[in-house]
User: Fold alpha-1,2-Mannosidase from Austrofundulus limnaeus.
Amino acid sequence: MFPPPRKDFIALTLGDAHSHAYNNAKHRRQSCWRKWKRLPRLQRSLILFLLALLLILALLSYSSIAEQWRGLSDKEDWLELNDRNLNFPVAQNPAAGKPPAPVVGPDLGQAEGPDEPRGPNVPVLSKAPPKKKLFSNRRGPPSLRKDGNLPATKAEENPKQQLVPEEGGEEEEKKVVSWRGAMIEADQATDAPPSANEKEAAAPGNPAAPGNPAATDLEAGTPDRLEAVRDAFRHAWKGYKDHAWGHDELKPISKSFGEWFGLGLTLIDSLDTMWIMGLKEEFAEARSWVEKDLSFNKNVDVNLFETTIRVLGGLLSCYHLTKDQLFLEKAKDLGSRLMPAFKTPSKIPFSDVNIGSGTAHPPRWTSDSTLAEVTSIQLEFRELSHVTQDPQYQDVANEIMRLVHKLPGKHDGLVPMFINTNSGQFSHKGVFTLGARADSYYEYLLKQWIQGGKTEDDLLEDYLQAVEGVKKHLVRQTGPSRLTFIGELTHNRFSPKMDHLVCFLPGTLALGVQNGLPGDHMDLAVQLMETCHQMYKQMETGLSPEIAHFSLQASYGKDVVVKPADRHNLLRPETVESLFYMFRFTKDPKYRDWGWEILQSFNKYTKVPGGGYTSINNVCDPANPAPRDKMESFFLGETLKYLFLLFSDDLELLSLDKYVFNTEAHPLPIWPPPPK
Ligand code: DMJ
Assistant:
């Protein structure tokens, strides 16, 4: 065994080593310096110049990389901050005692209403000082709240009820996505469609029966399907009423609620659906909540797009169906509170706006806005100007379309997914999709053109060009069954991936053809409709995944491949939406049958006993579809509404010659043609 080394030896050894190293380094420095001095002056200047240039370039790219990194980390914060499952402080709602006001309702053909000429462009953009964020919330009549004034969720009280582990799906969805009666005066109101009982009482096929002109032409058995949709709606509504009244979304498994903006999203999104379905009592109760409890004077950041399509669109649609001024007043209040979002250097609006303080901002990680978001608020803002005769809303909305129309960076009419609020230029160029972040841009080109009486040529031009771009770059067929699908283009590389969101396209294409656009668009619509149907049919649960990958392999294997992260189903509407359009225009009963299959699958795998429907995590596993414990507001606002309209024999119910549906399925009137 060796004796331990002496301390002085260690010190000496270390000291030697240090001095050795020091001398070596000094020597290297001196020799480098000598070499440098020996270089010709010109060469030294050139090297210094190059080094300075490199430094500047490094600094420049650092700031942009830093923004991206900051973005990534802030985005995580944002997702957390905006987690719709935040439990807001809950205030007791004193209002409830009053019985629902009687409701008289619409014939739901074109409602009579103020069709005002559009005025001059006078944008009024207000700015209020920022205030400290204060979340507040309201809830519905205590009598409706079985769980009373819950501090959090029932699931927290009873952990055993937290059955639903959420896998990557929801987080992923957030990353890619990306957001109504009254004492109605009898002379101004239109009648709601008859309730189920009233309908039964009416003679089937009787031309005199209200709202039933086309019944005789269609196959028997339809009323059962209609009633099944009403039942589904009542079941969903029951869950919402019992456990989430006045809140944004129902969490049906834990029998609690989730908050997003604190604006009663599900209730507002559902109002016109209830009106259309003739659910008068439910409608009156919800209307009472809007009257007594819906306040936009709250210090909360809302997403401009989501609030516009769901809340502003829902209120405007309800106003048109009922002629109840309450909805118009609420719409005006909300519209003016959203206006600060447009106060940007480029006039491309910020994604978020605080409706209480009047301040707006982009997401914290970027100064970009999502393209679909800024170009899918136009129907609503234009309609708000139309009914109020105040042009400020349509001016800001039209300006966005004007800017995007002339913007360089499109690819045969296809648009990138982001646009910068400072420069007004497209950003993250080179990625083209008809799915998340771009989808409703294409939908609203056509629908604005229709809304405005088919007079705005730029919109039509952009739409037609985009459809050509889609056909040229994004349409492919699968190897095995020759299914036509829409893929994505990423820096000139084709990816055979299609979001369920893209299934809005068959319906939109068909709507265009109905309005005089080229007949070959219908061929594409028919083929895509078949594909969207197969995205449901080929799954074990009969429900589509959020994203499908298609096989380009020749003639063998499956057409639709689903990746584990894409297996969720959020109760989305796009396929049944397109089925509705396809049936209205072709009368082919297969589209109804396909919709019926989808409704049955929703009932089998997503219906929650006691009330509500839930998103699921795995459409490939019928034994365990893995409920996610969330009922999105669009299930009531869109999915069930389109199913109802699909099965309704009244083909004049919300005639597509008179109404244009916004991207959240809220019908808005088509304006009369301008005087010649
Ligand atoms: C809805 O909010 C709207 O349909 C929007 O256009 C897309 N996302 C959901 C439904 O999937």
